[in-house]
Amino acid sequence: MSQATTVSPAGEVPHRGLISLSLMLATIMQVLDTTIANVALPSMTGDLGASQDTITWVLTSYIVAAAIMTPLTGWLSDRFGRRELFLVSVVGFTVSSMLCGMAWSLESMVAFRVMQGIFGASIAPLSQTFLIDITPLENRGSAMALWGAGIMVGPIIGPTLGGWLTETLDWRWVFFINLPVGIIAFIGCAANLPRIAQRLRGFDFFGFAMLSLGVGALQLMLDRGESVDWFSSTEIWLELGLAITGIWIFGVHLLTGREPFIDPRIFRDRNFVTGLVFMFVLGIILLSGLALMPPMLARLFNHPVITTGLVMAPRGVGTMISMILVGRLMKLVDPRLLVVGGLLLTAWSLHMMTGFSPQMDDWPIITSGIVQGLGFGLVFVPLSTLSFATLAPHFRTDGASLSNLIRNIGSSIGISVVTVMLTRNAQINHAELAAGLTPFSPALQAVSPAAAAGNPAALAQIDALVNQQALMISYVDDFKLMMLVTLCAIPLALLLRRPSTPAAGQPAPAAHMD
What we know:
single chain; mainly alpha; 3 domains; 20 helices; globular; disordered N terminus
C-alpha cells in the first residue's frame, strides 16, 4: 500500500491555484460532453450508418455508463488512491474521446461512448472532493464557486459549442476538442495533485450490482421513454420493474447488510441529506430548462443553432457573475439566506418565462436567462458548501459521488417529465383551440374569410397558427411546473445548519487526506 505524502493544513497546500485550474479543466471537459454531442446527432446519422431511432444510443450509452459507475468512485478512490484514480479517469476519458471522433460505425461509437461514461464518471466527484480538501473552511465558498461554474456553465455552452464545431468543421471535432484540454489537465494534475493514502475497504459486490441495476434501468427508461411511447412499450415496463427491484433491494441491503456498498452512516448528516434533495431539485430545473429552450427557439422563433446559443449565453454569464459574488458574500451572509434568495430569483425567472409568446423579440428570453443564471449561482455554491460542511472527511468522496448521481437523476427525470408534458399538452391545447374555429366562428371570419369559406391554403395557414399557439401554451405550462417545484423547495432551507467558522486568529482546520 502506498504511503500518503505529508499534507499541510489547507491554507498551506502548495500550488493550490494550479491544482484548482487543472481540476476545473478536467471537470469542464467531462461536463461538456453531457450536452455537446446532442446537436451533432443529425450529422452523425449518415456517417455512422444509423437511423433516427438508433442514433440516440450515442447519448443513452454515455448516460447509462456514467450513472452506473458514479457510485463506485468512493470505493475505487479508497482502493487505488484518489490521485491515481483521477489521473486514470482523465487519461481514459481523453483517449475514449479521441476514439469517438474516429468512430466508423454506430457500434464502435456506442462502445467508445460507454468508455467515456465509465472513465468520466469519477471526474466531477473527485474534483469536488480535492477542492474541498485543499481549501480552508473560510475560503471553501470561493472554491465551490469555481467548481460550480464548470458544472453549471458547461451544459449551457455545450449545445452552442457543439453546433458551431459541427457547422464550421465536422461533428468529429465535438470529441477531438477534448484532446488538448485533457492533455493539459493531466499534466497539471500529475505534477501537483497530492498523493492520498489508500484505505482497506471491502467491496460489496451484491450492493453495487443492485444499485447498478436500479440506476442503470432507471436512466435507460428515462432516456428511451419518449422514443418508444413510454408505457405503451413493453421495454419501458421491463426497465421500470428492474429499476424498482434494484433500488428496493439495494435499500434493504443498505439497512441490513454487514458491510454495505455505501456506509449508511453518511445519511445521518442532516445537511448532506438535505443537500441531496436540493441537488435533485436543481437537476430538474437546470437541465430541464436547457432541454426546453433550444427546440423552443428553433420551432417557434426559427432561430438557427448559433443564434440559439447566443440568445442562451447570457444565462451562463449570469451564473458566472453570481458565482464570483457569492464566494465573497458567504463570508458576510448566512449561506442559507443565499440559498433562499437564489431559489426566489430562479422562481421569478420562471414566472417571467410564463409570459413568453411567439410575437415577442429575444429580450425577454435574455432577461429571464440572466435572472435564472444569477439564481442558480446563489443556490449552487452555498448548497455545495453546506452539504459537506458537517460531513466527516472520510465520507467526502462517497458524498460527492452521491451528490453528482442524484443531480444527474434529477436532470433525467425532469427532462422526461417536461418533454412528456410538452408533447401531450400540445395535442390537448391544439384540440381545444381548434374546437372554437368553425366556419361560423366570428373570429375566424374576421381573421381569414378564405379559411372560413374552406380555402385549403388558408386553412393550412390557420392550422399552423393554432399549432404555434398550442405549442407555446405547452411551454408556458412546463415553466409553471418548474416554478412550483422551485417554490416548494424553499422550506427545505430550514433544515440546513450553518457550519461553524474558525474564530478570528485561529487557523482553519487541516485538510483531511484519507
